[in-house]
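Budget justification aside, the reviewers requested a transparent look at the raw inputs and outputs of the sequence design task funded under Objective 1. We therefore reproduce one unedited record. The lines immediately below are the structure tokens for a 244-residue chain.
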């Protein structure tokens, strides 16, 4: 009798779990993003969401922008975050917010007190940049061409955060978005200085899904959390700086 009672309770537990899973739909949120989102922003969002929704699971793929699009188009990911200067019309844009490029440097750098910098100001600085084809590199190259200046970066990588540990106490300037360094500036003694060149402010964060696809409830809830976080996160807080 005891064995039968225990078996019945276990069967009811399993049935309850199946009913809950059916109501929730797919509990695995499948994400794709470009590399800058994977350092701090998305991991923190996933951890916070998991605390609110313990049943949630995540599968994150980090790829180049064109691969991120492919993952959505082929149905391998439900949501994708990418930087863009022109939305992809093949995908449904769920969120779009401005995400300017910043010059990240040690707080004791000669340019650190400026309200803004131009690409000409960086001509003599050892620069850290991403590979050609990334939005930061493409916008920087365009800004340089429009300003009539040619600058060769000292450090180039397909991993935008690779050289950030070199910045404290150095003259190196890294070009990246604020989300890549969110939570790092104060602890590492760094500052984020905006650009005066309009080209460096033309970038946006785009969260996309597949057109016509229906997001499960948990994926839709995670999208709402992203919307809340991205409404305040892409820009560095304004601080008092000296004159240009």
């Amino acid at each position: 009798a005891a064995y039968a009672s225990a078996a019945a309770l276990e069967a009811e537990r399993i049935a309850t779990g199946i009913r809950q899973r059916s109501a929730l739909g797919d509990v695995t949120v499948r994400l794709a993003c470009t590399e800058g989102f994977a350092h701090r922003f998305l991991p923190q969002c996933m951890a916070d969401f998991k605390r609110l929704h313990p049943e949630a699971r995540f599968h994150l793929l980090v790829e180049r922008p064109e691969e991120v699009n492919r993952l959505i188009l082929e149905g391998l990911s439900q949501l994708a975050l990418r930087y863009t200067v022109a939305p992809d019309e093949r995908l449904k844009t769920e969120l779009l917010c401005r995400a300017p490029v910043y010059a990240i440097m040690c707080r004791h750098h000669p340019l650190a007190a400026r309200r803004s910098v131009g690409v000409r100001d960086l001509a003599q600085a050892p620069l850290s940049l991403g590979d050609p084809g990334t939005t930061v590199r493409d916008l920087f190259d365009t800004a340089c061409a429009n300003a009539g200046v040619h600058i060769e970066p000292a450090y180039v990588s397909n991993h935008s955060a690779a050289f950030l540990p070199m910045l404290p106490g150095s003259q190196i300037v890294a070009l990246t978005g604020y989300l890549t360094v969110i939570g790092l500036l104060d602890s590492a003694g760094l500052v984020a200085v905006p650009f005066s060149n309009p080209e460096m402010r033309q970038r946006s964060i785009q969260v996309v899904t597949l057109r016509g696809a229906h997001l499960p409830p948990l994926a839709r809830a995670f999208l709402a959390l992203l919307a809340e976080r991205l409404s305040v996160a892409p820009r560095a807080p304004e601080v008092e700086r000296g004159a240009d």
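The CA atoms of residues 128 and 155 lie 5 Å apart. The helical segments are 2-24, 41-52, 65-73, 135-147, 178-181, 185-188, 217-230. Computational costs for records of this kind are itemized in the attached budget.
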